[in-house]
Specification:
The protein has 323 residues and is mostly helical. Helix content is 74%, strand content 1%. Helix 3 packs across helix 7 and helix 5 packs parallel to helix 8 (133-155). The protein is globular and about 60 Å long.
């Protein structure tokens, strides 16, 4: 089975450069922010988002090297993603991410919020310096979407009336928007046609949605080692995801457990079990599969190459995590 690292072989040296650059971009002006950055960018994340940007850049510029702007776009993408994680961890009060203590548990909430703000501001500054208004607009929208997704998630806790469409919208804001708009930005920097830009955007959008659905399935099927947090964390905090929404259609009693916020003994365990007894997980797998198929279809116009093959394989990798 291919690991995600071997998938990224065509851009391995690009990613290595990216991590070094990120530490320097955040700058040594603020020792505490540098420590936070070192901590974030060195925490052995999979770097999936910048890898997608770099793979697409290589896939669309086969005859030439990728542009410095493509590299900078990949760095900005990882900065925005990391800034959102720092803020998410404060909101969720998580102490550990990827097995490493979170910024707020190491440096306190105040520094964590400021470190997240600093990374958003820093990414905006580098974004402006790309001197491409279309890309600035696309990625500024992402920063708004990330906040919108968090707000929606906060407002819809324990809401058993949540529709699948509302769940997908929130998943777009929280996860897919960054992948979709940074993918499209690669094409903008390469002067591709509107049709090609649409394909790159839809590749990122569908891959991002599949990615989120798979994460939500793993919340029910993964181990603490895989998840880096206890199983069922989303359900426990009232964040209702695809497996739960599908299970609710079959098991009406599940709604009363959720609506009383698991206030009675055994409520949560019973709810967790009901999701497993329903078609919720298999229907969520089918939903993720449809999005991966749509993502892969968007790559058909790209010339055959190692980077293009890796982008297709990435879709299959996302699904293999739950099959």
């Amino acid at each position: 089975m291919l690991s995600v690292t071997s998938l990224f072989a065509p851009v391995e040296s690009d990613l290595h450069l990216l991590v070094e650059n990120l530490k320097n971009l955040v700058g040594a002006k603020h020792p505490i922010l540098y420590a936070a950055a070192e901590h974030l960018f060195g925490a052995g994340g999979k770097r999936i988002r910048p890898a997608i940007v770099l793979l697409l850049a290589r896939a669309v510029s086969l005859d030439a090297d990728i542009l410095p702007q493509h590299r900078r776009l990949a760095e900005i993408t990882e900065m925005i993603h990391t800034a959102s994680l720092v803020h998410d961890d404060v909101v969720d009060e998580s102490d550990v991410r990827r097995g490493v203590p979170t910024v707020h548990s190491s440096f306190g909430n105040r520094i964590a919020v400021l470190a997240g703000d600093f990374l958003f501001a820093q990414s905006s500054w580098y974004l402006a310096n790309l001197d491409n208004l279309t890309v600035v607009k696309l990625l500024s929208e992402v920063i708004m979407d990330l906040a919108e997704g968090e707000i929606q998630q906060g407002l819809n806790r324990f809401d058993t009336g949540l529709t699948l469409q509302a769940y997908l919208d929130k998943s777009y804001y929280k996860t897919a928007s960054l992948i979709a708009n940074s993918s499209k930005s690669v094409g903008v920097l390469s002067n591709l046609s509107e049709h090609q830009l649409g394909n790159l955007y839809n590749y990122g959008r569908n891959l991002g949605l599949a990615f989120q659905i798979v994460d939500d399935i793993l919340d029910f099927t993964g181990s603490v080692e895989v998840l880096g947090k206890p199983a069922g964390s989303d359900l426990k905090s009232g964040n209702l995801t695809a497996p739960v929404l599908f299970a609710l259609e079959e098991k009406p009693y599940l709604a009363s457990l959720i609506e009383r916020e698991f206030s009675e003994d055994g409520d949560f365990d019973q709810a967790f079990e009901m999701v497993h007894q329903s078609e919720g997980i298999s229907r969520s797998r089918e939903l993720a599969t449809r999005h991966v198929e749509q993502a892969i279809a968007c790559l058909q116009d790209l010339p055959a190459s190692e980077p293009q093959k890796a982008l297709v394989e990435l879709g299959n990798y996302v699904l293999r995590r739950v099959y």
